[in-house]
Amino acid sequence: MASIKDVAAEAGVSVATVSRVLNDHPSVSSDARTRVLRAVAALGYRPNAVARSLRTDQTRTLGLVISDVLNPYFTELARSVEEEARALGYSVIIGNADERPDLQDHHVRTLLDRRIDGLLVSPTDGGSPLMLDAARAGTPMVFVDRWIPGVDVPVVRADGQSAVRDLVAHLYGLGHRRLAIIAGPAATTTGSERVQAFRTALAAYGLPLPDAYTGQGDFQAESGRRVTEGFLDLPEPPEVVFAADNLMALGALDAIRARGLRVPDDIALAAFDDIPWFVHTDPPVTAVAQPTGELGRAAVRALVDRIEGRPPQSVTLPARLVVRRSCGETPEAARTPRSPHPPAPPEPQAAPGPVPAVTEVPATNRSKP
User: Fold this and answer.
1) With CB atoms 3.0 to 4.6 Å apart as the test, which of 81, 135, 288, 362 could cross-link to 296 if both were Cys?
2) pTM (2 decimals)?
3) Separation of alpha carbons 126 and 3, rounded Å
4) What is the spatial distance between Cα 54 and Cα 293, in angstroms, rounded to a whole number?
5) Helical spans, DSSP H, in the chain
6) What is the mean pLDDT of the chain?
């Protein structure tokens, strides 16, 4: 394997000049830079990243700790993070917390020990002492999707509140009045925020959210199955189950089908976090979609700004409602383009028409999951 001394000899320059070229130092002449780059290519030289990091105090490596690698939302997020980081000259090491605070902290500690340049985290809870200490110590860090309130760290996230309002208005317009929610963990900001957005949207239409229609999940499919079974056992089951996460929605669908019931004929289903699978279910699932790819890219840009001395900015992007056919929408209605602006809540004893929303034409011959 070629060394930096071999490159210097091939190019006819000093080792220091080779080092300056490899680190993009502006003091090198264009002729010397050309000769060094030709020698690097001819010899197949690869800089030793570890040794270089000891000299520059940078590893050009980012850490990403995601909440659940099995969740398609976080899989897509990780992919966009890796792509954007690579475009900016960074590598990414990924840790999967599996929705466990102890495993999250294990990955954070390991990544910090490896001297990463910065850290992207989607926190599994709001009280990790390790995360708080890292932030207070000045570790370049960005929270993505979820955050820890009160911690002075940039946050890149989607605003799901307006999309949840759109969903409730849509469901009201379809004639649904008994709406239930499978909530995510209350310790996460997304878990608590989505429940509150749902409750507030229902109140605007004069609809209650009884305790019996609020089920506590954990962003995992099994919890969606368990909570939905409880809903179906009620003397008056809900007309709609809104799962605050895609995996819980799939668990809810399993529970409904296990009872021999059909969506939406017997009970309607909607979800937060749209995923590609939802267009292949029967019927396709109406869902709130987040701009996952752009969230990942924006998070990397914010972190690199922090690492490279530029002021990072928090970013909030809009989520949107995607109307399909799991809540009783007709195929004709799902094919009709609609305005993204929902109607205002009704006056007393007045019922609005179906809410306009982003629509998606269902594919034909879809297989069940």
Assistant:
1) 81
2) 0.76
3) 48
4) 33
5) 4-11, 15-22, 30-43, 49-56, 72-87, 101-113, 129-136, 161-173, 189-204, 221-232, 246-258, 292-307, 331-335
6) 86
